[in-house]
Write a structure and sequence with these properties.
Elements lengths: L2 E5 L6 H12 L2 E4 H14 L7 H9 L3 E4 L5 E4 L2 E2 L7 H10 L3 H17 L2 E5 L2 H5 L5 E6 L2 H14 L6 H17 L12 E4 L5 H15 L1
Parallel strand pairs: 1-6, 1-7, 2-6, 7-8
Antiparallel strand pairs: 3-4, 4-5
Helix pairs in contact: 1-9, 2-4, 2-5, 4-8, 7-8
The structure holds 2'-deoxycytidine-5'-monophosphate.
The site of 2'-deoxycytidine-5'-monophosphate has 15 residues, from α2, α4 and α8.
Amino acid sequence: MLNIAIDGPAGAGKSTIAKAVSKKLGIVYLDTGAMYRGAAYAALKRGLDVNDASQIEPFLSGLEMSIECGDVQQIIVNGENVTPFIREHKISKAASDISKLPAVRLKLVELQREIAGRTACVLDGRDIGSYVLPDAEYKFFVTASPEERANRRFKELREKGSDLTYEEILADIKDRDYNDSHRAFAPLVQVADARLIDTTALTVDEAVGAVLRIIEGEK
Ligand code: DC
């Protein structure tokens, strides 16, 4: 099965690139971050502490998650479509926190491997090339400077009416980078066989083109 892994820090452009590449190749896009966000949202809704394994582990045994891939991927958690709620600002940090717990990762990675095993797809995340699918046919590590990522997020959130400042967003991005790359189990890391795409000075089209040239050049 054709699997393309796109890993990298928050706000580097992974999902934009992954969506465009999946469309161009006519395969599915799987946003694995949305799965951690869905789990975090459901845990917070139950009033649980996303940093506390003793609260999250029992919650996981009753957690049913299903994914409907499509133009806008839908995440259904325990029968509720949580898609509209998982992009809220507070869910970003909660997803990063809950994703540190090995039991959470094991459960969601199982679902990711199951989908990738039966569907040609582009997956974006933090540990796809290093842990979820170490044999993925293509691996990319997409990054950009923290300042550029904060700048993009700032503009995006502004358009949605958020009043967070650039400084607050930059601090959150740095905090999440630290959290995601310093956890003990399957941290964010650039593996040796991943191609580096630094989007700091690239337009979306240039970044997508760089990825497609590598894939099409090697077909
Ligand atoms: O890509 P994102 O911002 O939607 O991801 C939210 C959080 O989920 C991220 O900060 C860390 C976690 N995550 C992860 O640990 N592993 C993945 N494969 C994807 C996301």
